[in-house]
């Protein structure tokens, strides 16, 4: 159970006298962490302590304050390097010097190098490719007959093909890359295992970079190698940037798209509305992004560089701050009846892709893939349904991102 135990804080902040012990226990399906649900309503800036790391940290959950913290340059990511801030995992997924752990101007430079490839224009071009891939994958799945595991047949291979094309990664390397993904995006593997995998990845990308610098191709990885040669990107940055792009694409789209399908199948009235009026799809994807609990716990923290008031609390220089985008997406001050799925909801933009300086670089790409997956399934399989009862679906354990282990469906 994830209910937090409240204990007296060692060092009492002005407006909070307790530290919530947050074990970030396993959650199934669409369940929202009970602590997040409670904090966003009653204590939007709270103190928490998780299983790993040292001491405790602030956890900001309300929509308004999450937006404020993530846009404020007085909260630094670079200062988290070497700080064992309380965390849900024994290892950090994001490497030091990686895009998630830098501040401007380094952060701006890294983002610029890839943002061109992930903007709406590139996503539109890639959409044609993605539509062809989804058609082929669904045709192969139906040719074998029901039931099928949708994660294996569609939501797993789809981002694999896309990132393979975009970065120019050989299809035969994906068994290895997927194995690395499973270790790095776990929440229960040791620091040693994670470091060993990071070392293997560094060798892999260094060798590929040498190859592309001799024989450049028309792909994002060759562009990044050219930036390294030109001196705008260091060798370690090339590796960590590529790694973040690959891992996020493979893991987030696999889980997110599968959970979106599950969500629709267990909300038959909403699914029927969408089937009756497919132009609702782009808005429906936004509502699904808001509604689906994408991850366990929270991501990377930030460190206050100076004293900053947030709501009724004064966050002191040097203190660590986590934000929960997931909790903010259920903020009742912003979303009417936030626990209800409403595919035509038209309220504030969701924060599933984060906000502020570190807003998801792959948002357009992720939206596009989710839309293509859903529209292909709606069009090709009007009888799509779960192959068993909803409670029979098994959900991933010991992972950072949430999603079904497998999604058995028939049609
Ligand atoms: C539905 C799928 C996805 C979701 C829900 C998602 C969510 C997020 C969130 C919440 C953040 C910001 C976290 C923070 O405050 O640091 C983020 C950052 C990031 N995402 Fe995504 N993401 C998705 C797909 C992708 C894809 C397909 C890519 C591929 C390019 C990607 C690449 C990145 C990168 C590189 C960052 C770091 C940006 C930075 O630190 O400046 N994401 N993502």
Short key terms for the protein model shown above:
globular, 12 strands, binds protoporphyrin IX containing FE, about 400 residues, Cytochrome p450, seven-stranded mixed sheet, alpha+beta, three-stranded antiparallel sheet
Describe the structure in your own words.
- By secondary structure, the chain is α+β, with helices and mostly antiparallel strands.
- It has one domain: Cytochrome P450 (Cytochrome p450, Orthogonal Bundle).
- Helix content is 46%, strand content 9%.
- The chain contains 14 helices and 12 strands.
- It has helices at 34-42, 63-71, 106-115, 120-144, 150-155, 157-167, 174-184, 191-214, 220-230, 235-265, 268-276, 281-291, 325-328, 363-380, and strands at residues 5-8, 18-21, 45-49, 57-60, 75-76, 148-149, 302-304, 308-310, 313-315, 320-323, 385-386, 408-410.
- The strands form 3 sheets. It has a 7-stranded mixed beta sheet with strand order 1-2-3-4-10-7-5, covered by helices on one side. A 3-stranded antiparallel beta sheet has the order 6-12-11.
- α8 packs across α10 (235-265) and α12 packs across α14 (363-380).
- The longest helix is centred in the middle third of the chain and has 31 residues, at 235-265.
- It is globular and about 60 Å long.
- Residues 1-15 have low confidence and may be disordered.
- Bound molecules: protoporphyrin IX containing FE.
- Protoporphyrin IX containing FE binds at residues 70, 99-100, 111, 118, 244-245, 248-249, 252-253, 256, 294, 299-300, 325, 352-354, 358, 360-362, 365-366.
